[in-house]
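Section 3.1: Structural characterization of target chains.
Under the original work plan, the team committed to producing a structural model for every single-chain target entering the pipeline before any wet-lab resources were allocated. The record below documents one such target. The sequence was received from the expression subgroup and is listed exactly as submitted; it comprises 205 residues.
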Amino acid sequence: MNYLAHLHLAPDDVEARIGNLLGDFLKPAHAQHLPATMQSAMQLHRWIDQFTDSHPIVAECKTWIASERQRYAGILIDIYFDHFLARHWAQFDQRALRDFSQQVYAELIEYDSILPKKLHEILPSMVKFDWLTGYQDLERIEQVLAGFARHRIRRQSHFAAGIDDLQRYYSHFEKAFLAFYPDLIAQTQLQAQYQMAINRQTIQK
């Protein structure tokens, strides 16, 4: 899953939200200086990614990605699913997406001093252009793919043209997301509860 989903799936706590986002920017081995709640949320981030990558619905989604982009199919689907989460936000959260997004930006600004360099650098743009709310729009998704291709894909991969796959199989991806995401929410909540229980036992020892 991508930024919006990780923020949404985190336990309703500021440090948990930030920690779940940090999983995209920081390795656990480099996070020992962070609060325990953030480190635990980074573990949850990794679990979410593993659960998503191994899910049969996601495996089916990968068959709709063009052959020249198969290497990056998982990344593309993560971004597509953020789009559908934004589009169907009201089905999964009582808060307005824009309100949730503004809350997240304020929290990130509050903790700016401990953010990894990459997140620190993109935060002003994220806030100014309201990235999270913008995921509702296909134009924004096209920009995300183009930016990802410029800055994170070293070899020619036609990654940015992944917008074509999304548009071609739009209804397929949408139905897949709506079938997958409730399962992800339920399983993530169980995993978060399990982690909390393990952490309490560790503290007691």
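The CA atoms of residues 27 and 42 lie 8 Å apart.
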